[in-house]
């Protein structure tokens, strides 16, 4: 398939940001500036404060509407960090404007929406990637190498946890059900993604329990068990109500691999840590990566070289399918079979 050719300057992809969201200001915009193959052109917001943000972050152009940014022919790619329920609308509009798209996780609120988003990007010949930046940190390739080498024998179990204690909950869109709030959408999506990625398999049965907020009915915490199609079992937990954790563990017949900074190594100065335990002996490997810069450079390279991003649209659709099954299990209390 021939993708839209990027109008580049010195082999750099020119980026626009749809929203003044904190993650954009604190993570993606600085990463674009650090990247070797990217250039930040513009940011759009929904009010005059976007000009203050642009001045503070030295962004050349500021727009008070997303539509204006999408109309700028100088922009090759956009980053969408909008609240979850707006992802589909702005992915569609960005694709139809001919922009390549890096969209924050979760990709959407349903697998059907996710599939439609991937489809419209293919129809418009633009690249699309869900911003599961963790996957691109080099520590995970090393984990896969260890598994392939037989370092821990046959995989028997994968566990994953991602949590943080949320303050000021009433002001958080993450507590709004209609906006795609809840710990499962926000941090549990990482746990499910990592389990599927490391196992190289898809869940066929899901059972999930949750603690729901009494006012908003969003899941404050969720606890899931997955049965994968290759016979591996997995468990995960995610929460807005627990101390910060972002980890996974792979238990094999001969040993274990623990990754304690799996999803946010940037909170550990970019240092990923792998703990391999065999015969009561623990070996530690440390691997550094500039997490968000790697994400920006990877996606920009995919545009420049017309290659497929490592985080594929199809994988994102399947992640949403599992999240939907977890939500259905929370609602019904039943084990949910995932049909494909």
Which helices and strands occur, and which strands form pairs?
Layout: E1 13-18, H1 22-34, E2 38-44, H2 49-57, E3 61-63, H3 66-70, E4 77-80, H4 87-96, E5 100-103, H5 111-123, E6 128-130, H6 138-148, E7 155-165, H7 183-199, E8 203-212, E9 219-228, E10 233-239, E11 241-252, E12 255-259, E13 271-278, E14 281-288, H8 291-305, H9 313-332, E15 336-337
Parallel strand pairs: 1-2, 1-4, 2-3, 4-5, 5-6, 7-10
Antiparallel strand pairs: 7-11, 8-9, 8-15, 9-10, 11-12, 12-13, 13-14
Q: Please list the strands of the largest sheet in the order they lie side by side.
A: 14-13-12-11-7-10-9-8-15
The first-level CATH class name of the largest domain: Alpha Beta
Query: Looking at the structure, what is the overall shape?
Result: globular
Approximately what portion of the residues adopt beta-strand conformation? Answer: 25-35%
CATH superfamily of the largest domain: Dihydrodipicolinate Reductase, domain 2
Unreliable sequence segments: 1-8
Number of separate strands:
15
Structurally, how many domains make up the residues?
Answer: 2
Proportion of helical residues: 25-40%
Query: What is the structural class?
Result: alpha/beta
CA gyration radius, whole angstroms: 20 Å
**CATH architecture descriptor text of the largest domain:** 2-Layer Sandwich
Largest sheet: 9 strands, mixed
Return the string of H and E elements. Answer: EHEHEHEHEHEHEHEEEEEEEHHE
The overall pLDDT average reads 95
Number of helices: 9
What's the CATH topology name of the largest domain? Answer: Dihydrodipicolinate Reductase, domain 2
Amino- and carboxy-terminal Cα gap: 26 Å
